[in-house]
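Q: What would this chain look like folded?
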Amino acid sequence: MLGYRCCSDIYELPDEERMSLLNVTKERIFYAYVNVGCLENKWTHLAKLYPNAQMILFQGNSPHENLNDLKTAWGKRLLLLNEKNCYQWKDICEFLNVVPPVSPYPKIEGIPKRKVKVLDSSVGQNRWLDRDESPWIIDRQNKEFEYIQLRKITANKPINDYQLDNSKFWLYRDDTFPGNECLFSPDNFRIKSRTKANFVARKENMEVRQYSSSAITS
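A: My prediction, written as structure tokens:
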């Protein structure tokens, strides 16, 4: 929601992404990394490689075992979150110097690290779908790869009516993001059949937006 192309909740980065990150090359695809297992012992090293980077650490009820080392390496570029301030935009947006989104901070269950496989464009049939140009979407000029999720994830509020082919679980979105003229509403999503659904966009006063639309997320 803050405009970062983020790679999160995995054990290993794709080889080319990891090498690009550690070698400070421009071939990196992602701008942010969250809960990535292979980077957990490299944070102090990355602080030296990227002097303009920032780090956000959730310390929970117990201090991080390497907290003093991280404080020394990152200095003022380190933001510590806890149970009191981890579900609000204020501290995060002030730290990153960005405008807070109009929607409340999302409260959703965290995802454990996942084991993934990486396929390049030579595997199977791939086709780029028409889409808006957004900073969090991989650009078509980047080398194509696809994450194959090996672990099944279920959502806490699944949609009924066949679950859209009975293979995935989805959540309705009721927020928006900077630059989007619509506010997402569950009322604008209509399941037509086992494999078809309508996403409705219409002009109406949504207080923070003048249009409503719909979106679902897994």
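Confidence is low (pLDDT under 50) at residues 148-159.
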